[in-house]
């Protein structure tokens, strides 16, 4: 979790390769962000499936939803289209 997420609205949630978690975190220094490190991204190179799983857990419950609730964020948003595909 980066920044103060307590009470924040529309906090972005991103799935990133756990090997570059700290580098990705430094890119979002000014706004609250929730970054989820994933060890499979380096192997698959496809974040879409993992983003879908995060979204599913946000909607239906699971350990990621529980973790995000502990962050204090009032609401979160999940990017359904990887940044590389959106560009």
Q: What is the spatial order of strands in the main beta sheet? A: 2-1-3
Order of helices and strands: EHEHHHEH
Provide the gyration radius in Å.
12 Å
Strand content: 15-25%
Biggest pleated-sheet summary: 3 strands, parallel
Low-confidence stretches: none
User: Total helix count?
Assistant: 5
Give the termini separation.
25 Å
Structural class: alpha/beta
Percent helix: 40-55%
Structure summary, number of beta strands: 3
Global mean pLDDT: 76
Overall shape: it is globular
Please, could you describe this protein's structure?
It is a single chain. The chain is α/β, with parallel strands linked by helices and 87 residues long. Helices cover 44% and strands 17% of the residues. The protein has a three-stranded parallel β-sheet.
Quick description:
By secondary structure, the chain is of the alpha/beta class. The protein has helices at 21-27, 41-44, 47-60, 63-71, 83-86; strands spanning 11-17, 34-38, 76-78.
Topology record:
Blueprint: E1 11-17, H1 21-27, E2 34-38, H2 41-44, H3 47-60, H4 63-71, E3 76-78, H5 83-86
Parallel strand pairs: 1-2, 1-3
């Amino acid at each position: 979790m980066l920044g103060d997420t307590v009470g924040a609205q529309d906090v972005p949630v991103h799935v990133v390769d756990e090997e570059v978690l700290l580098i990705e975190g430094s890119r979002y220094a000014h706004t609250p962000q929730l970054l989820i490190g994933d060890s499979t991204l380096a192997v698959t190179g496809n974040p879409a499936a993992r983003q879908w799983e995060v979204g599913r857990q946000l909607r239906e419950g699971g350990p990621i939803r529980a973790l995000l609730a502990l962050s204090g964020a009032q609401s979160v948003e999940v990017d359904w289209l990887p940044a590389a595909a959106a560009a």
